Amino acid sequence: MIELTGVHKSFGEKHVLRGVDLTIERGKSLVIIGGSGTGKSVTLKCVLGLIQPDQGSVTVDGLDVTKLRQGSSERDAFLARFGMLFQGGALFDSLTVWQNVAFRLLRGSLKRPTNEAREIAVEKLRRVGLTPDVAELYPAELSGGMQKRVGLARAIAAEPEIIFFDEPTTGLDPIMAGVINDLIREIVVEMGATAMTITHDMTSVRAIADDVAMIHGGKIRWTGPVSRMDSSGDPYVTQFISGSAEGPIETIR
Amino acid sequence: MRFLATIGATVLGLLAAIGRATRFGIETISHLFRPPYYPREVGHALLQIGFYSLPVVGLTTIFTGGALALQIYAGGARFSAEAVVPQIVAIGMVRELGPVLVGLMIAARVTSSIAAEIATMKVTEQIDALVTLSTNPMKYLTLPRVLAATLVMPALVAVGNIIGILGGYLVATGRLGFNEGTYLRNTIDFLELSDITTSLAKGAVFGFLAALMGCYFGMQSGRGAQGVGRATKSAVVAASVLILAANFILTELFFAA
User: Fold this and answer.
1) How many interchain CB pairs under 8 A, A with B?
2) What average pLDDT is seen over chain B?
3) What is the distance between the alpha carbons of residues A179 and A170, in angstroms, rounded to a whole number?
4) How many angstroms separate the Cα of B23 from the Cα of each of B18, B99, B136, B216?
5) Alpha carbon distance B101, B86 (integer Å)
6) pLDDT tens-digit profile of B65-87?
7) Are A164 and A117 in contact (CB under 8 A)?
8) Can you tell me the distance from the alpha carbon of B158 to that of A144, in angstroms, rounded to the nearest whole number?
9) Residue A102 belongs to what domain range?
10) Is residue A87 less than 8 Å (CB to CB) from chain B?
11) ipTM of the complex model
């Protein structure tokens, strides 16, 4: 279970998170929605320990993330439980596709022999709908949709317990976005993983989420099952899912 | 008062930046004593920084050695000392111009490339991706580059010194009428072992500074293309200035009477 309690984070004068309280049950898929610059990515990065909160606690199965020292074996073991799909893929340009996918399997505590790591990478690529001949290409040779799929294959390569997806469909055409949504849903169900996704894309929300949390003004405005999202009664959620310019969310931010 | 406040803020900002860079350097060195290590990355950096810099080092030093021979010949003629060309070319190249020119060329070629690469990795979240894949960016990106530059720079300086002396030799024997055998004998006889060792030591220090500045400014990069550009520019400027400052300090240390 992932639990954030009273998390605050500022960058200079900008107070991004103003007391985020959020719980993600084990094996559930939670999608965080909210406008640009409302703190969705910061929240996610606080859980991973990429950003240190100024105040509040972040625990994963009771383990306080903020107490883990950078570079310690405890932190490495903690991160080994996670997979992450970055918004732009964040693939390493200097490595081939299979080396990207098998990155974690080629070094560190999860290291496997090179041949085995390559086989796993090819299998994961197949799982996300890419053929083995893609394995030897470099990221720059791939389209945006293919890069997302490779990023997804890398996120699941070490079979993590928890997977984070940062805007998985941004920049993709509707068909490719649908393919990625279906893949995410299938993989999360198949692996029984806990998933946390941040997105603006309401089609993604409906395809991926068990639960939804709406963040606004650095706080969680509403949280509940996806089935109740349309009848939440919260004016912020209603405005956001309808994409209306009229409502409490200011359009000029 | 506002003028003084601006000066104060600039000085404080500069001191803070020096402090951050120093801490970054100490942290980089500390990773040398803490596994895991990435020998493959070190090998890759050795190739990129060392082998692929050979053409630029060779071209820079051969022309400088040739020009140095012409200058010393012309200058020496004012007091009938044209014969000192081999000795001055040798000492000038080995003690000063070799290490400094190679250092500055490495700052231009390698520091800029390291800073732009790491800054782009930061902007595109590849550094964050490394962390989530349980890989410390300081160990995986910084240490291999800094270590490789420190190890390979003495070799590049040695090559630069030899090619620089060769440039002087070609000009002196081809244009200025020096005897080939005498020129070489004068060069070899005049140089002392300490000239060579201090030259190589300077190279190691310059390599360390050049790669460290590339990594530091790359890691500190701001967002977007402008952030990458600014990081690259700052890295090259800082590396060049530090190399020249370190050269003065090391020369004072090694050669001051």
Assistant:
1) 52
2) 94
3) 13
4) 9, 26, 17, 10
5) 19
6) 999 999 999 998 888 888 889 99
7) no
8) 46
9) 93-152
10) yes
11) 0.86
Which of these, A195, A118, A194, A196, lies nearest to A157 by C-alpha position? A118
Are B148 and B45 in contact by the 8 Å Cβ rule? The answer is yes
Task: Please say if the pLDDT value at position A48 is more than 70.
Answer: yes
**Separation of alpha carbons B192 and B172, rounded Å:** 22
Whether A35 and A250 have beta carbons less than 8 Å apart is answered as no
A chain contacts of residue B144, beta-carbon cutoff 8 Å? none
Q: How confident is the model at residue A180 (pLDDT cuts 50, 70, 90)?
A: confident
Asked whether residue A115 is domain-assigned, the answer is: yes
Whether the per-residue pLDDT at A245 is higher than 80: the answer is no
Model confidence at A176, pLDDT cuts 50, 70, 90, reads confident
Find the CB nearest B134 among A45, A79, A93.
Answer: A79
Judge whether A64 lies within some domain. no
Is residue A223 classed as helix, strand or coil in its secondary structure? strand
SS3 at position A224: strand
Residue A144 has pLDDT above 90, yes or no: no
Residue A241 placed within a domain: no
Domain annotation covers residue A202 = no
The DSSP string of A144-165 is: HHHHHHHHHHHHHTT--SEEEE
Domain coordinates of chain B in residue numbers? 1-30, 39-255
